[in-house]
Amino acid sequence: MTTVASPAQLLSRITADPAIFGGKPIIRGMRISVELVLSLLAQGETVESLLEDYPNLEPADIRACLAYAHAVIAHESLEAVQVAGE
Questions:
Q1: What is the pLDDT of residue 85?
Q2: Which pLDDT score, from 0 to 100, does residue 52 have?
Q3: What pLDDT score does 71 carry?
Q4: Can you give the pLDDT at residue 22?
Q5: Distance (Å, rounded) from C-alpha 22 to C-alpha 8?
Q6: Which long-range contacts (CB under 8 A, 24 or more apart) does 52-57 make?
Q7: Which of 8, 14, 28, 52 has a Cα at 20 to 30 A from 78?
Q8: Exposed / middle / buried, residue 35 (Cβ in 10 Å: 0-12, 13-18, 19+)
Q9: Which pLDDT belongs to residue 30?
Q10: Which parts of the chain have pLDDT scores under 50?
Q11: Integer Cα distance of 20 and 5 in angstroms
Q12: Among candidate residues 82, 80, 84, the one with its CA nearest the CA of residue 67
């Protein structure tokens, strides 16, 4: 049985660090930005190809990027996003 992560659990995978990409949202402290993942998906890349091209990514990371985009568009709280130094 697959456990479905809540939006807050997914958002906890997204971090921000002023020392990496000027504080843009990134995935789990890696140098992979949410913006990059969303851009690649918008260009038609598949989840499978992203996971192949970026072996440190996990399927939940991609879902986290989508949850982040949804939260931003819906003007929801992003409290689960961890910011370095806070």
A1: 58
A2: 98
A3: 87
A4: 93
A5: 24
A6: 56/30, 56/32, 57/27, 57/32
A7: 52
A8: middle
A9: 93
A10: 1
A11: 26
A12: 80
Token pair belonging to 76: 């929801």
Tell me what percent of the chain is helix, strand and coil, each rounded to the nearest 5.
45, 10, 45
Q: Which two tokens stand for residue 59?
A: 């399927």
- What would the two tokens of residue 31 be? 């140098």
CB atoms within 10 A of CB 84: 13
Structural domains of the chain in order of their starting residue, each with its CATH number: 19-83 (1.10.10.10)
pLDDT at 38: 98
Which pLDDT score is estimated for 86? 56
